[in-house]
Design brief:
With 351 residues, the protein is of the alpha/beta class. It has 2 domains: 7-247, 3-Layer(aba) Sandwich (Aspartate Aminotransferase, domain 2); 253-328, Aspartate Aminotransferase, domain 1. It is built from 12 helices and 12 strands. It has a 5-stranded mixed sheet with strand order 1-9-8-7-6, sandwiched between helices. The chain has a 3-stranded antiparallel sheet with strand order 10-12-11. Strands 2-3 form a two-stranded parallel ribbon. α1 packs antiparallel against α2 and α3 (71-85) packs across α8 (217-230). It starts with 6 loop residues before the first helix and ends in a 23-residue tail after the last helix. Bound molecules: pyridoxal-5'-phosphate. Residues 71-73, 76, 98, 100, 145, 149, 173, 175-176, 198, 210 line the site of pyridoxal-5'-phosphate (PLP).
Amino acid sequence: MKRADGHIAQMLRTQRKHVSFHTPGHKRAGADITELSYSDNLYSPRGAIAEAEKDAARILGARRSFFLTDGSTCGVFSMLRCLAATGRTSVAVPVFSHPSVRHACDAMGLKLVPIPQETEYGIPRQPAREAILRALGSADALLITSPDYYGNFPPLPEIGALCKEEKKPLLIDGAHGSHLHFDPARYAGTYADLWVDGVHKSLPALTQGAVVSAKTQPWAEQLLAAVRMFRTTSPSYPILASVEYAVKYPRNEALERRAEAFKTQYGCVKNGDWSKLLVPFGKRCEAAQRFLEAHGVYPEFNDGNYLMFYLSPCTKGKELEKLGKLLEKLPRGTVLNAAPAGAIPIYSEEP
Ligand SMILES: Cc1ncc(COP(=O)(O)O)c(C=O)c1O
């Protein structure tokens, strides 16, 4: 099977030109169709979607994987629903988790047990094992983010072992880690009972494409009931096809090596994730961003201390080269030891 020929893409390609007496209202029956006699159904898939999800589960090491067209947010809601549905009432969560975690806990009536995170050189550090252990003592489960937006990892093997020992489920928000399924030691699915892969962020899927997975049959059953609760009943087929394409996209080891060399050459912050290049500019961030954008180069974020450049297996060597040449022209500033702009502790109200 050619890489682009996923089950869903193939199904979309074999459709014949037809007159649309169905949604969507634009009436141009191309790839953007709805659930028709031949296009399967995300709620109870039996055709192309079922085959694609099966392949994804095999690739990701899951008992079952479910495609999402509503982002990792839908995966976070679905995972936390599994806790509530199995009688759990609380979950330990690092304080700089994504807002969807708090919103899902609010919706599900789960008590949030905050795990403190230190800020070091303007970057929230992953919580220490001891802090996790303390919080887990008064919670029924643990949800961690791995890797985080800055490319750092919690101590996954220790956390995995700890949750097993305590018989408490481990949920991992892998919104930024879907490219790591090639690297089992650092992949969420190696350790978690339930995890979400934000494939649209670090693999070539359309925006909103994600996958949520369960490791075992009992969790798979819970997760099926949960995704049925939160997923749209009008999924976008272009997004579904792109999720399958992204999960099957090959590893780009040459780029991974090049990115690691780039980090050393251009003084990026050391982290564990080749796909996240963090360049320290301190108060020169704004000027650096303006300069880069004037040259057509757009970073992922500017948090007031760092510009972050987000790679994927599709990043081209010559693009990295261009970035490097521009960075050489830019003066750096000192980073401040404050929490990054935009990172809001999960227990506080957003302004
Ligand atoms: C750590 C983390 N989790 C979850 C999400 C939600 O992902 P999505 O935007 O795909 O819904 C994000 C989004 O940025 C995130 O950074």
